[in-house]
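Exercise 7.
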Amino acid sequence: FSRERLALPASVGDASALRFVACGRPLPGHEVRIVGAEGRELGERIEGRLEFRGPSATRGYWRNPEQTARLLRDGWLDSGDRAYRAEGDVYLTGRVKDIVIRGGRNLYPQEIEEAVGAVDGIRKGCVAAFGSADRGSGTERLVVLAEVPAQRLRNAAGLAALRDAVGRAIVGAIGEPADAIVLVPPHTVLKTSSGKVRRSACRERYERGDLAPAAASARLQYLRLAGAALSQRLRSAARRLGRLAFGLRAALLFWLLAPPFWLLCVLMPTPAAAWRVAHCGARALLRGARVPLAVRGLEQLPADRPAVLVCNHASYIDGLVLVAALPQPCSFVAKQELAGQWIAGSFLRRLGTLFVERVDRRRSVEDAQQLAAAVAQGRSLLVFPEGGFRPEPGLLPFHLGAFAAAVEAGALVVPLALRGTRKLLAYPSWWARPAALSVRIGSPLPLARRDDGFGAAVRLRDAARAHALRELAGTQDGQQC
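Solution. The predicted structure, written as tokens, is:
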């Protein structure tokens, strides 16, 4: 098999037989073939590269035409496996990149690793066999990397005997010796998260000269592990200190700036003047706290007519961020409970906020009419149609009130998407964390016909929510992808 690629059935009890698992037959709609080096299909029980095609085959690599060209040939996908067929079943024999080719013979690492792992004194499952290019002969050198328990590392004579035992096991398994046997401390053989040996990564370390003999490298291995752990702890502590410093700076700036700007706002003669003061204060706070704010799409805001601006809601700081982002005055639409608060209520009333009822259905209808009347008077509204927020990412259902008011008043609806506030000030915490903020203003939605009533409001609501979903997809503020 290893010299002629021919999988002949072994006799019963043959101790030198190779064993491969039958993987069954192709699923309906799929085709499998085994091809040789020239790309021609091979016959029964002849090993080669496994190619397949069918509905589950990938179309290629993302934005990598060179790799895709190597992967696909005339519609057939190269699986990267070697295999043979027998009586309709497919037998996988190994990954192409793992097989060692030495002197025209294919050597299979699994067989070697199993034999070495059975040697007393070698950690079972912690052996890697791989090929390393030999430029002189044009073939590959067989290298076997095997882990030794820590208590055996200091016994040089014992290690020499163990290396001899490993050599005999390799000859017994494949009929010829390895070119190099490297005994190493525990946790040197690299593995995937699922426990598979990473032969290519082990080869890279070996060829870089990164693997010292076991007796010499045990203490170095412990020092490396300790250094890595210490480095990780120091980085983690630095991140915590950075977050603490950021939160302290943000809190200090807020309590320094909020009182004077609150007083200036409530003393302003008009909501428009109060908005301009609040806009300057909010931007000063974000700049001082070193919170970047990117605003895109300001040109989408109608300059000659009022509009209903609708935005997702993720944090208590959303209102402040929108005041910092929007230079032109708007009237917030807020829950009725805030009107009774002295500090927040005074500030919101001075900005021209409209307070609405969220629980009483009869009052909510009256509030919708109030919103429509405000728009008809020329006031642009700023609404959080979710009506609230929760700690988990994702959009809540949008309420219809703002959209019904826009239909009634014949006003444009402009969708906004606010990103980053959930990370900056995550509910229910009041401790700020570093985050980058952005406000993305979408194109105004098509003007709805007033005589369409409820149906028009539903379509506007669905279109605004779809805009938010697109803009927030995969972020901490939106849907998880």
